[in-house]
Write a structure and sequence with these properties.
Sortase, Chain: A; eight-stranded mixed barrel; signal; single chain
Length: 203
């Protein structure tokens, strides 16, 4: 990651990361004060060599039936991360100031759990993932990066673990984020976070 991209990544991580989960306003998913929950295990996935930078164009999660295009997300005017639009054809979004899937560091992909009157979002079943499940990112250069889930956590938005989600790691990892838990009039009270590590890649 370039120094400029890293600064933008850290800035966004320390600011509020907004994800609209119901199509009625936005929900804060990364408060300024990170939580103190234990760091997920990083020993479940076998080691794999990292890849060069290549933008993700698709994401497949066989265990929950996800096969989605991936759009790019930047920063909104208030410094928060943009979210995918609320549309009938919902898709995931990769935060472009994070590493691309397969690069060393945490690559961040966001998705909605619901999309207003359109119904279920692309990450509606994200909380059903379990340790050992596969996630496959299709890259712009034609390669694929396969990740193995280390942990799936549902956390209160007030206790979002920013350091664990965005902090530096010494291997290629993936973070998938959506909303979860009980629903209020404007959104959801919790976030679902998937932690995964690179296990293999196509040549």
């Amino acid at each position: 990651m370039t120094s400029l991209s890293r600064r933008a990544f850290v800035t966004a991580a320390m600011a509020s990361l907004l994800v609209s989960c119901g199509g009625h306003g936005t929900d804060s998913t990364a408060p300024e004060h990170p939580g103190s929950a234990p760091v997920p295990s990083r020993t479940s996935a076998k080691a794999a060599h990292g890849l060069g930078r290549s933008v993700p164009v698709g994401l497949r999660i066989p265990a929950i039936g996800v096969d989605t295009p991936v759009m790019q997300l930047g920063l909104a005017a208030d410094g928060s991360v943009q979210v995918p639009p609320i549309t009938a054809h919902d898709r995931a979004g990769w935060y472009r100031n994070s590493p691309t899937p397969g690069q060393t560091g945490p690559s961040v992909i966001l998705g909605h759990v619901t999309v207003g009157t359109y119904g279920d979002g692309v990450f509606r079943r994200l909380a059903q993932l379990r340790k050992g499940d596969r996630i496959v990112a299709r890259l712009e250069n034609g390669r694929t990066a396969e990740f193995t889930v280390d942990a799936v956590r549902t956390v209160a938005k007030a206790d979002f673990p920013s350091d664990e989600v965005y902090g530096d790691v010494d291997r290629p990892e993936l973070r998938l984020i959506t909303c979860g838990g009980a629903r209020t009039g404007t959104g959801y009270l919790d976030n679902v976070i998937v932690f995964a590590a690179l296990s293999s890649a196509t040549p």
